[in-house]
């Protein structure tokens, strides 16, 4: 079949270091994952939201309305121009830096910064470096020597935790004085008299630092000669090509120092305390908590505009509260659509919502402007009004309620003596329900007092918020694609006002129960931006479709009209691409630069004296022999082995040999391959020799006394062996590399493990980083398995995995006799690792709607161009994060979309493309943004940002910035509340768990202080924060506690094979939830701890452990006994189900209350107070005090 003329040329794959006279590739055109920049980008005015309030005519009150009611009538239905007599509100520092044009040059003067963070170093091992916002271009460039730029942040002010006299200190060290909320305006308050007026607005186009023009990122020279590091950002594709080791030419007379050139060693000024760096600038107007003075959309009311109660004796017509319109409601069908506000004065609807109708007056409630929220007998319940800014009206629960014989819950009282059909018990239960709360939660406007509702954790798993789209279409699963905001603000200033981080988390290669796979001759894509057709495109007719990212109209090929399910031609909307937000294509040959390579696996095994003492080699060889046939690959699959100590040992496994031949290379300074062939052999052809080698290895090195470890030289040999074909290198390391290239020294000071500022979190040198970049260019990924009890400098050696899209697995204290828990976990993890699905030669690109831009990446990869991630290997156990910037106003859009496409080679040699598309609505009110926040995704993103902050600045700064997340967001929400309760800490329902999870991060091994923590364990925890998918990351941050002493079938999961899985309630991590008469399972992702109370029932001991009492329960059990009792079957089924919910093995460890390991269990009680940190309730009090300052 001839190629479609509307499609671009085939995608030509090219690695980062392909031969081009030693230069990076200048172009990969045409690229299916790239597109030219938009030529018709339209900019919108921030104020283009409707009629100016100052030009609106004066309203005429309804006839017969009292002056008091008329005053409220005016306020509730008409916007008013800003008044100079209104007290201004103090602007807060920016939680998120302004995206778009913000760049490094804006950090020249700290006094002009909206975010007090220092300049971030380019050579950060946790971040691939920043880049400026880009436009889609068909040209790709290598990022060697790329300039860093702005990193989005989430904190704003220096709010160090300073407890009062009645509060325990956050840290054992002295606290510096509190910094002013705004530079140059000290001692400000969130409310009260004497506040400074809001500063003058500065247009975004006239950014300046100290009165000087600010150059763009491309005008800033670079001092680094290394390629773009892991997790990082990329440069603008229009920038000139940069050769490794060279600097970018400057086009401006204003030359600012590059990242890392600061003379203060990268430490921030005293007033810089958030998760971004100091390269931020925002106009003062963006910091103001006041909403813009403009007509309010119909699903909200302006501040101080809610109708208050009428004077006593007034018979005025009541006014219903307005609420967001339900999907499908036809305003024109309502005879009361124009009540409360003239039709000609309605502002334009926002995000697809229609204007809210006003209901007719009800004679039974003439004395109150609002009907009771739970009046079930007179009218249908009405949703509550959205929280408004600066409103003087109290919350709905405090408003005047209509008189009458009503219970507290709002239901009418039953007749005295009872009447047929009246159930007092049912009435008592229904009286406690609140339709107001239910509707508020549905519309995202519900709030709660965190200090009052201390048991905030729900008893069931937290459900991901679902974006509400009109019309509803199949959206991407939250297990694959999630955004921190399910309602996207339409302007950057609104995003800054919300203080919420804007980003996405993606799990692109997740194991899917069902996946639609399509094989077609033509993959339909946008000719402009190269977006794949998806459920959110618009069909102009049956021959044309409009792209949902760049809005270009494209032609449909004839093939797309064919429905493979019904085998008929017709409506193109029946195609699987339109019915599924996740789809996979089998790519034609156009998407290949070379034929798909076979799956190649190479294993590097440490056989030094320390490695032999741990006994890992027997365990490794046993698991390999058991799963050799399960390795993913086709008949061409190849495998090889290298062992190393002070020398490098190769193994010739060529067909025809009677036994494996070991070839030793002792010259590790200049590594070479001793044989050109038979070091990588076909698994099926040489299976007998491979089995012999795995059986013989533990015996061959049993008496090895060489204490040296030449890891660097062994990796260089692996690189030379794998370069022609690419593949996966698996490294097992047990000791610190101390010999040959890449040798390291012990940098850990045991006396500083509990300090507040931890040093040596970053790498000691760039040897492993440079080698990883070479591996990435040849499609080689390196995975590390660290089995050790001593320091191995994970911060340095892990670079070989980070920049080559590999992974790190750490087993501290591994030993065959004293560390059985780690031995079992390593065996289970290795089995999963060997048999899981894998993709080779992969690249991933994330596209977004015009007006949005991705500016920071988090994860293990190499950034090849502005938005193209190089992934030599992709696996189902790794996730990625991206931070998003709003570069242009989205006021004309009802929704925005993100699309991630992964092009990879399967283990069977097929070239495939997996596409995920996520669509989110656009809103224009800050309360809608807060109400649509995804608290789990926010925690996942800020944890990655805090890791970068710890490396580029200090651990204490990262901790302070995490605290600022709560202070800033809840402070913004307090400012938008219509009524405020003294001493309360109000939070939107969508963010109710944010303080709890932030406290868990502060107490986590990655960020905690005051507790002795080994440096390797801390760095490994940070590594996992960057790479874990959100589903597992949340359990890693805040483990799950289950009571299991009384399991039953209530709320159980019933599987198809008649297996009933109990589902006990989830408890908060507090010792007050632990009963001495109970048994509990703590799921920490890595280990399942079964804690048995001292006073446990003897019947439970007999039914579960087959022992008479508590004292007879053995602690060395590796699994529960299989007993034919209901209690045993339920508990074993539940434990097995938990272990199956994660990719790697989670062994079970039994801890009795009188055990010496009890402290391991109790350290996970994160809600309790520790020596260096608050309890959860004290932490809430501290946040409230910080907001009130």
Oligomeric assembly: single chain
Q: Structural class per helix/strand content? A: alpha+beta
**Rg, alpha carbons:** 31 Å
Distance between the termini: 71 Å
Mean pLDDT: 73
Protein name: Protein transport protein Sec24B like protein
GO biological process, one term: COPII-coated vesicle cargo loading
Membrane topology: Peripheral membrane protein
Main location: cytoplasm
Summarize the structure.
The protein is an alpha+beta fold. Residues 130-139, 249-258, 391-410 have a biased composition (Low complexity).
What would your notes on this structure say?
This protein is 20% helix and 14% strand. The protein has 1189 residues and is an alpha+beta fold. A hairpin with a 3-residue loop joins strand 15 and strand 16. The N terminus is likely disordered. Belongs to the SEC23/SEC24 family. SEC24 subfamily. GO terms for molecular function: SNARE binding; zinc ion binding. It is a peripheral membrane protein.
């Amino acid at each position: 079949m001839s190629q479609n003329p509307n499609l671009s040329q085939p995608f030509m794959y090219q690695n980062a270091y392909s031969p081009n006279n030693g230069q990076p590739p200048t172009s990969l055109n045409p690229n299916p994952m790239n597109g030219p920049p938009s030529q018709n980008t339209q900019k919108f005015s921030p104020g283009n939201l409707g009629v100016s309030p100052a030009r609106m005519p004066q309203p005429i009150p309804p006839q017969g309305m009292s002056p008091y009611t008329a005053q409220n009538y005016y306020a509730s239905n008409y916007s008013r121009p800003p008044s100079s007599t209104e007290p201004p509100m103090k602007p807060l520092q920016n939680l998120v830096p302004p995206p778009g044009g913000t760049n490094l040059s804006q950090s020249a003067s700290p006094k002009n910064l909206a975010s007090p963070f220092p300049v971030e170093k380019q050579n950060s091992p946790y971040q691939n470096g920043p880049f400026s916002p880009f436009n889609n271009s068909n040209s790709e460039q290598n990022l060697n020597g790329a300039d860093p730029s702005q990193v989005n942040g989430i904190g704003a002010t220096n709010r160090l935790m300073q407890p009062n006299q009645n509060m325990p200190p956050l840290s054992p060290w002295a606290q510096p004085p509190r910094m002013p909320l705004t530079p140059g305006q000290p001692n400000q308050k969130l409310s009260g008299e004497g506040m400074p007026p809001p500063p003058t607005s500065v247009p975004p186009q006239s950014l300046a630092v100290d009165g000087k023009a600010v150059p763009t990122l491309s005008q800033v020279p670079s001092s680094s000669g290394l390629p773009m590091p892991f997790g990082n950002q990329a440069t603008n594709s229009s920038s000139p090509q940069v050769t490794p080791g060279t600097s970018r030419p400057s086009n401006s007379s204003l030359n600012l120092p590059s990242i890392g050139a600061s003379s203060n060693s990268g430490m921030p000024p005293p007033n810089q305390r958030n998760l971004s760096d100091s390269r931020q600038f925002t106009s003062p107007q963006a910091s103001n908590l006041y909403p813009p003075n403009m007509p309010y959309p119909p699903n909200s009311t302006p501040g101080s505009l809610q109708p208050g109660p009428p004077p006593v004796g007034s018979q005025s017509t009541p006014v219903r509260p307005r609420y967001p319109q339900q999907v499908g409601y036809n305003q024109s069908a309502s005879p009361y659509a124009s009540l409360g506000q003239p039709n000609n004065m309605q502002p334009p609807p926002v995000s697809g919502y229609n204007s809210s109708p006003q209901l007719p007056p009800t004679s039974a409630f003439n004395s109150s402007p609002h009907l009771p929220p739970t009046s079930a007998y007179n009218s249908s319940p009405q949703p509550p009004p959205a929280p408004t800014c600066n409103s003087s009206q109290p919350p709905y629960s405090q408003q005047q309620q209509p008189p009458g014989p009503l219970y507290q819950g709002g239901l009418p009282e039953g007749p005295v003596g009872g009447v047929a059909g009246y159930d007092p018990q049912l009435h008592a239960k229904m009286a406690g329900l609140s339709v107001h709360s239910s509707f508020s939660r549905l519309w995202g406007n519900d709030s709660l007092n965190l200090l009052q509702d201390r048991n905030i954790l729900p008893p069931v798993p937290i459900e991901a918020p679902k974006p509400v789209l009109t019309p509803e279409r199949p959206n991407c699963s939250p297990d694959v694609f999630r955004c921190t905001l399910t309602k996207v603000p339409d302007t950057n200033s609104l995003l800054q006002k919300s203080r919420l981080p804007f980003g996405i988390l993606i799990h692109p290669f997740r194991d899917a129960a069902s996946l639609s796979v399509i094989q077609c001759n033509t993959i339909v894509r946008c000719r402009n931006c190269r977006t794949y057709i998806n459920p959110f495109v618009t069909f102009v007719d049956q021959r044309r479709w409009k792209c949902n990212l760049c809005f270009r109209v494209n032609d449909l090929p004839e093939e797309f009209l064919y429905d493979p399910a019904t085998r008929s031609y017709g409506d193109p909307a029946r195609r699987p691409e339109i019915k599924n937000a996740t789809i996979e294509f089998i790519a034609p040959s156009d998407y290949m630069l070379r034929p798909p390579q076979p799956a190649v696996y190479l294993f590097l095994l440490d056989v030094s004296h320390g490695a032999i003492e741990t006994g890992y080699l027997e365990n490794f060889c046993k698991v390999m022999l058991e799963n050799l046939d399960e390795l993913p690959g086709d008949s061409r699959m190849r495998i090889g082995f290298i062992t190393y100590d002070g020398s490098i040992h190769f193994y010739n496994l060529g067909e025809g040999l009677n036994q494996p031949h070991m070839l030793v290379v002792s010259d590790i300074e200049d590594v070479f391959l001793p044989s050109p062939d038979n070091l990588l052999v076909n698994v099926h052809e040489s299976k007998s020799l491979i089995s012999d080698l795995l059986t013989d290895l533990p015996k061959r090195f049993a008496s090895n006394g060489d204490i040296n470890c030449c890891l660097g030289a062994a990796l260089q040999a692996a690189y030379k062996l794998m370069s022609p074909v690419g593949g996966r290198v698996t490294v097992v390391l047990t000791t610190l590399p101390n010999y040959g290239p890449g040798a390291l020294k012990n940098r850990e000071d045991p006396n500083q493990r509990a300090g507040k500022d931890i040093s040596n979190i970053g790498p000691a040198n760039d040897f492993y980083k440079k080698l990883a970049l070479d591996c990435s260019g040849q499609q080689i990924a390196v995975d590390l398995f660290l089995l050790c009890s001593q320091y191995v400098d994970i911060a340095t050696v892990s670079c070989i995995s980070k920049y080559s899209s590999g992974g790190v697995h750490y087993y501290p204290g591994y030993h065959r006799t004293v560390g059985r828990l780690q031995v079992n976990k390593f065996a289970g993890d290795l089995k999963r690792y060997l048999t899981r699905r894998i993709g080779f030669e992969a690249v991933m690109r994330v596209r977004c709607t015009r007006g949005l831009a991705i500016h920071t990446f988090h994860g293990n990869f190499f950034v090849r161009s502005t938005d193209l991630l190089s992934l030599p290997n992709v696996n189902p156990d790794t996730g990625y994060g991206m931070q998003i910037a709003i570069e242009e106003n989205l006021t004309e859009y009802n929704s925005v979309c993100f699309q991630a496409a992964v092009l990879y080679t399967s283990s069977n040699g097929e070239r495939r493309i997996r596409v995920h598309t996520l669509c989110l609505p656009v809103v224009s009110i800050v309360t809608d943004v807060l109400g649509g926040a995804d608290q789990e995704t926010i925690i996942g993103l800020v944890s990655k940002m805090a890791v970068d902050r710890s490396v580029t600045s200090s651990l204490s700064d990262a901790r302070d910035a995490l605290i600022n997340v709560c202070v800033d967001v809840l402070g913004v929400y307090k400012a938008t509340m219509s009524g405020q309760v003294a001493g309360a800490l109000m939070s939107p329902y969508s963010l109710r768990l944010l303080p709890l999870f932030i406290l868990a991060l502060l107490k986590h091994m990655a960020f905690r202080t005051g507790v002795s923590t080994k440096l390797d364990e801390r760095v490994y925890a940070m590594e996992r924060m960057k790479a874990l998918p959100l589903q597992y990351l949340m359990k890693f941050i805040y483990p799950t506690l289950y009571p299991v002493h009384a399991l039953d079938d209530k709320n159980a999961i019933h599987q198809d094979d008649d297996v009933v899985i109990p589902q006990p309630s989830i408890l908060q991590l507090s010792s007050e939830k632990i009963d001495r008469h109970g048994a509990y399972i703590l799921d920490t992702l890595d280990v399942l701890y079964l804690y048995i109370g001292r006073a446990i029932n003897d019947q439970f001991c007999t039914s579960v452990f087959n022992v008479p009492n508590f004292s007879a329960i053995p602690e060395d059990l590796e699994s529960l006994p299989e007993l034919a009792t209901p209690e045993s079957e339920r508990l074993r089924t539940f434990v097995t189900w938990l272990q199956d919910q994660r990719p790697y093995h989670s062994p079970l460890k039994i801890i009795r209350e009188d055990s010496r390991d009890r402290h391991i269990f109790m350290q996970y009680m994160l809600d309790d107070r520790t020596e260096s940190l608050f309890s959860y309730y004290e932490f809430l009090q501290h946040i409230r005090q910080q907001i009130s300052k």
